[in-house]
Amino acid sequence: MYLWIKALHVMAIISWMAGLFYLPRLFVYHAQVGPGAQSETFKIMEAKLLRVIMRPAMTVSWATGLYLAFAGEHWRDGWFHVKLALVLAMTAAHSYDAVLVKAFAADANRRSHVFYRYLNEVPTLLMIGIVTMAVVKPF
Predict the structure, then answer these.
(1) Considering 66, 76, 78, 120, which has the largest number of Cβ atoms within 10 A of its Cβ?
(2) 55 near 108, Cβ under 8 Å?
(3) How many CB atoms lie within 10 A of CB 87?
């Protein structure tokens, strides 16, 4: 059962990461348009990406990840503590994206597209650390 849950964990992470990479990219484009039909399309895309893909994928990632950590007794390892801290940071990035979706939906965005271009790099940096901890297990 452990390997099936591990496979589900990897699938959920791939889906969650896809959303974490794509949503800030949508913000980049959304920040460049004014009110109108194009903005309304972005609002729908952002809300659905968050609600239909990202939240369920994050939930499954957490549930399966916690199962794997306890079943494999990884919670005792130093690398796991670092990975967990990075996953918490990833979850915070996800939560911040959700706040931004609400701001865009209310036409209350106050940031430029350049801000969102930088924001788009945060999940990448966190992913590098998470994957390094999970695969290399340096300590």
Answers:
(1) 120
(2) no
(3) 21
**pLDDT of 122:** 97
Range of the domain at 72: 2-136
Domain count, the chain: 1
**DSSP 8-state assignment for residue 74:** G
Provide the pLDDT for residue 53.
98
DSSP H or E stretch at residue 136: helix 122-136
Terminal-to-terminal C-alpha distance of the chain: 27
Is residue 126 within 8 A of residue 90, CB to CB? The reply is yes
Prediction pTM value: 0.93
Virtual CA dihedral for 77, 83, 85, 86, nearest 10 degrees?
A: 170
- Using alpha carbons only, how large is the chain's radius of gyration in Å? 17
The pLDDT tens digits of the residues spanning 68-113 come to 999 999 989 999 999 999 999 999 999 999 999 999 999 999 999 9
List pLDDT tens digits, range 26-45: 999 999 998 999 999 999 99
User: Residue 58's closest CA among 18, 16, 87, 116?
Assistant: 16
